Amino acid sequence: MPHSKIALFAILEWGISCPTFPDCGRRDLRLHKVEFHLAMDPAQPTTNDQRPTTIGVLALQGDFDAHRRRLEELGAKVLLVKKPEQLDQIDGLVIPGGESGTFLKLLGDQGFEKLKQFVRVKPTFGTCAGAILLALEVENPKQAGLGALNIRIRRNAYGRQIDSSIREGKLLSRSQSGDPHDAALRESPIEMVFIRAPKIEHVGEGVEILATEGNDPVVVQQGRAMAATFHPELSTDTRIHQLFLELVRNGAQR
Ligand code: GLN
Questions:
Q1: Residue at 1 is within a domain
Q2: Between 64-73 and 239-250, two packed helices, what is the crossing angle to 10 degrees?
Q3: pTM, entire model
Q4: Per-residue confidence at 15, pLDDT binned at 50, 70, 90?
């Protein structure tokens, strides 16, 4: 039945606690509505097992809901990921801003390991605290990173909350023509909201810079991992999320 679409809704009662994502034990998370779509509409991209392409947003803390809204606005099916096993149901993941140290605590060792496996094989986009989690090396203070991006990143590099700012940066186009006359076409201005933001201090081998602010790289990609040190979900410009959705669609290694 190539054109049919079957939607099945289920209400699941969660257990008292979830050892890996301790936040899951909170009362307000105990009743969780899960939507299963078995979509066979050829217009909708599907994975090998015939599920529609689904983007997860890590929803342990931080501004995950703004990412959900943005991704849905761009036509994606979104799953808020609160338990490690939900990583098996998604084709790409957004790790939102928040507090990277708190993410590490909420993930616990098992959640961290599961996430580490995930970022090796599936497209993942980290913003701000999410960018910190994806890094190989983290400073100020040193903390564990998932190692998906060969970068060294410094937490709170612009100062405190009060030093948060909205700036204009440059989105670099991927045209690789090499023609110096194309230079003007190859970058366009883009608003960037920095909140207690980190700075990428060192970009290692294999990492591509997709956007800059001043002299700093602020959006980078390596293989399936992509990170922004600011909050693209807080601006109306949708281009950064579009880049990520493209990465998920291509399943690309760059
Ligand atoms: N300062 C936070 C951290 O170090 C990140 C802030 C953010 O995500 N907006 O984890």
A1: no
A2: 70
A3: 0.79
A4: very low
